[in-house]
Amino acid sequence: MTQKPILISGAGLASLLLARSLLRCKIPFRVFERDASLASRGQGYRLRLSSEGLNAIESALDPAAWKKFYDRCGKTGGGGMRIIDALTGEPIEQPPAAAAANSSSGSSDSDSLNSREGKVVGIARGDMRNLFMEGCEEFVQFNKHVKGYELTNDGVRAIFSDGTKSEEGSMLIGGEGINSYVARQLSNGKLKVYDTGARGIHGQAPTTAFKGLGEGVFRIVDNSKPNGTFAVITNVRSGDMDNPDTQFGWTMIGEPGVIKAPNDDYTIVGETASNIARELTKDWNPKVRPLFTESNTSEGAFWKITISTPSGVPEWPNQPRVTVIGDAAHSMTPAGGLGANTAVRDSALLGRLLQNGYYEGATADYEKEMRVYGSEAVAKSYGMASKMFKIHIDEDKSTTMEGEVRDNRSSA
To answer: Rounded distance, CA 249 to CA 235, Å?
Structure first.
C-alpha cells in the first residue's frame, strides 16, 4: 500500500468501527489510544441499539463480522419501556396526554425502543469495543495521547502528549470523546461540552437480583427525595435470566443535587459509588432493592452528564485533512439512548466516503451530512433530558467542561 494512512485519535466505539470499515476496504490506518489497553477503564453500561445504529454497524462490517456481532447482542422482549414506582414496586400508569408526549419524543414508545425482530437489541460497551477491535490490533497503538496536530504540505501529523509526532497521514480523525484536543483545535473552540449538573451512578448485579422485575426495559422512579427526582434504567433479558455467570447493568440518573460524589470527584469507582447508590435506594421496594444490595461493589462508578451545544453541531471552517466523530462532535445526555447510535452513524458515513481512500472533499461531504442528523440527535436528547432531569443549558452563560473528566456514556 502506497497510500498514507488515515490517522484516528482514540479507540472508542466510533473510532474502532471506522477502523473496521477501513480494514474491510484495505485502506491503511493507524489508531492512537491514550490508555494502556481497552480494559484500562470502566466501559460504562449496556447500550441499546436503534434501527439506525444497527444499520450503520451492519454496513461497516463484513457479513461474517456482522453475524458475530449481532449474535453477541442481547434481544429483550417485554413491550417497550415500563415505568415502576420505586417505593411501591408497582407500575406507574401514565395519563394519555403524558403517554402521547413521551411517544412523540421517543422516550417510552415501544416502537422507538424495538429495533429488530420486535425486540430491544443491546450489547455491553466493552463487548462492542472488543468485537470492533478484532483484526485491527496491529494498527492500534496504546499509551499515545493525542494533544493536537500539525498540517504538512500534503498531509497531517498527530502530536502526542510527550511531544513526539506520528508518521504523516492523509487525514486525521478526532474520535477521542468529549475531551478531544483535535476537536478544540479544529473548531477553534466552537465545539463545546456543557456540564448539565445532573449526575449518575452505574452498577452491575447478578441476574438473580432482577427476578422481581421480569423481562423488559424499566425505568424505576423515586420522587420522594426533597432535592429532586432520580431514576434507574435497566434492561432484563429472559434468555440470560438463569445464567449465574451473567450480570445485568443498571444506571442511576439524578437531577442536579441528588447524587453527590465525595469532594465532587466523579472519577471515583468501586465501593464508594456502590454504597451511595445503596443509601439512596434503602427505602425502595423489595422487588427492586436487590439490584443495589446484591450489586457487584467493584463495578460502581460515578459519571457526569454532559451535552454538546444544544442548538446543534456548530459550523467551523472546513479543514480537508481533519474532522471529528462521535462524542468529539456531538456528546449527548443518556436520554433516549442516542449517543452511541449517532456515533456509529458517523463511522459508517465516513467509512463509506473513504472506501477508496482519502480525497480532498471528504471532510466537507461528511460534515455536511453529519451536522444534520447529529444536530437532530443532540436536540432530541436535550429536550428529553430537560424534562426528565430538569436541566437547562444557556449557551451564553452555562459552564463548559474544562480539563480531564470521566468519559460521557450513552444510555442503555
So the answer is: 7
H-state helical runs in 117-248: 125-133, 181-187
Share of the chain above pLDDT 70, in %: 88
Is 220 found in the same domain as 330? no
d(CA 114, CA 233): 16
Nearest to 207 by CA among 244, 252, 250: 244
In this structure, the answer to whether residues 105 and 33 fall within a common structural domain is no
Domain boundary among 253, 272, 306: 306
Residue 88 has pLDDT above 50, yes or no: yes
Q: Has residue 99 got a pLDDT over 60?
A: no
49 and 38 in a common domain: yes
What's the half-sphere exposure (Cβ side, CA atoms, 13 Å) at 181? 17
Chain centroid to CA 325: 12
Maximum pairwise Cα distance, the chain: 67
Q: Residue range 375-388: average pLDDT?
A: 91
Specify if 168 maps to a domain: yes
Question: Is residue 205 classed exposed, middle or buried when 0-12, 13-18 and 19+ CB atoms within 10 A define those classes?
Answer: buried
Give a yes or no: residue 244 inside a domain.
Answer: yes
Q: Write down which residue in 306, 335, 351 finishes a domain.
A: 306
Q: Same structural domain for residues 315 and 302?
A: no
C-alpha cell at 292: 443495589
Quote the mean pLDDT of the chain. 87
- pTM of the predicted model as reported, rounded to 2 decimal places: 0.87
User: Beta strands of 117-237 (E only): which ranges?
Assistant: 120-124, 140-141, 146-152, 155-160, 171-174, 193-206, 216-222, 230-236
Closest among 113, 115, 82, 47 to 231, alpha carbons compared: 82
Provide the domain limits for residue 94.
77-122+200-306
Q: pLDDT tens, 107-156?
A: 443 445 677 887 888 888 888 999 999 999 999 999 999 999 999 999 99
The DSSP call for residue 138 is G
Give Cβ neighbours of residue 88 (< 8 Å, ≥ 6 apart): 285
